[in-house]
Amino acid sequence: xxxxxxxxxxxxxxxVLAHYDRGGVTAxxxxxRHLIAALATASFTDFQHLVQGWPGxxxxxxCAREADGGFGILLQIAAHEAAA
Length: 84
Known about the structure:
By secondary structure, this protein is mainly α. The chain is 69% helix and 0% strand.
């Protein structure tokens, strides 16, 4: 599976950070909150299916769960786009 971190938007990063209680901003809508929860708890196969429809959120959840320094990466994405 190929995850493209460049797909992560500021909103994606902030919502995923909030899901893991690492700062960020909680999504305003129930669908996004439930989607992040589904991505965060999905099996590998289900995750692959979900990430096809929501590549940014999928990449952000993958980053948080699997990448070394993932939360730092998400914080940088949120801060970088906030400054732009």
